[in-house]
Amino acid sequence: MIDKSRLSELKKFERRIKYTFRNRQLLGQALIHRSYAYEHGGEKILDNERLEFLGDAVLGLAISDYFFRKFPDFLEGEMTRIRSALVSRSTLENLAKKLELGKVMLFGKGEAASGGADQARNLVGAYEAVIGAVHMDGGFKKAERFIEQQFKAEIERVLKSGAKKDYKSVLQEYTSKTYRTTPRYTVVSEEGPEHRKHFEVAVIFSGVVRGKGKGKNKKSAEQDAAYRALLEEGILDKSPQEK
C-alpha cells in the first residue's frame, strides 16, 4: 500500500506528467528501483523492470505509428532515422530530467548513496517504466497520447533538423581511419514516375557492399545507405525495434 506521504509525491508527479492514474500502484511500481525492492523484499515490493520492458516496446510502436500516420510520404529509412533520434538514450534521459524523475524514485541505500538518482540508466529505465505504467493503466491509445504530449518539442526539433545528421560524413571519416579508403555510392534501382521516384543506393568500401538505403532522391538514399553501414559496423546504436 502507498502511504500518505508517498501518495502526495505521486500526485505531484502526476501533475508534472499531466496524466492521472486510475491505479496509482502502477505509477508507484514504475518509480521503484530494483535495489529498493531487494532491500524491502519481505514486503513483496515489485521493481520497475517489467514495466520498463513494456514501456520500451510501447514507445517504439507509438513513435512509429505517429510518423506512419502523419507523414505518408516518409520512406522506411527516413522513419527509422527519426525514430532512432527520438528514442535515443540521451533524449530519454533529458526528458526524465525535465520531469525531475530521479527525485521521486525509490532506491536502496547503496544505490542512493552512489548517486543513483542522477544515473542515466536509472532515469531512462524509470521513464520507460512510466510509459509502461500508463499503457497498463489506460491502454495503448492513452499511452500514445501521453507520448505525443511528452515528445512534442522533441518531434518538432527532429522534424526541423530533418533528423539529418550527416551520416555520409561520419562514414567517410570512419572508413578513412579504419579502412584507409573512402566509401563509394551506386544506384541499385530507380522506380516510380518523375514526380514520385524512389531510389535505392548501395554503399561500398573495401570491395564489399556495406549497406543499402532508400530515399525520394539520390541524396537521401545515400544518407540512408551510410546510416545502414554505420549500424552494421557498430558505430551507431540500433533502435529497440532493430535489435
Describe this structure in words.
By secondary structure, the chain is mainly alpha-helical. It is 60% helix and 10% strand. The chain has a 3-stranded antiparallel β-sheet with strand order 1-2-3. The longest helix has 22 residues, at 49-70. The model has no long low-confidence stretch (mean pLDDT 90).
Helix count from the secondary structure assignment: 13
Shape, please?
A: elongated
Helix content: 55-70%
What is the distance, rounded to the nearest whole angstrom, between the alpha carbons of the first and last residues? 37 Å
Q: Please state the CA-atom Rg, rounded to the nearest Å.
A: 21 Å
What is this structure, in a nutshell?
This protein is mainly α and 243 residues long. It has helices at residues 4-17, 24-30, 34-39, 49-70, 76-86, 89-98, 101-104, 109-113, 120-138, 140-150, 152-161, 167-178, 218-232, and strands spanning 184-191, 198-205, 208-215. The chain contains 13 helices and 3 strands.
Keywords for this entry:
3-stranded antiparallel β-sheet; 10% strand; elongated; mainly alpha; single chain; 243 residues
Topology of helices and strands:
Blueprint: H1 4-17, H2 24-30, H3 34-39, H4 49-70, H5 76-86, H6 89-98, H7 101-104, H8 109-113, H9 120-138, H10 140-150, H11 152-161, H12 167-178, E1 184-191, E2 198-205, E3 208-215, H13 218-232
Antiparallel strand pairs: 1-2, 2-3
Helix pairs in contact: 2-9, 4-5, 4-9, 4-10, 6-9, 9-10, 10-11, 12-13
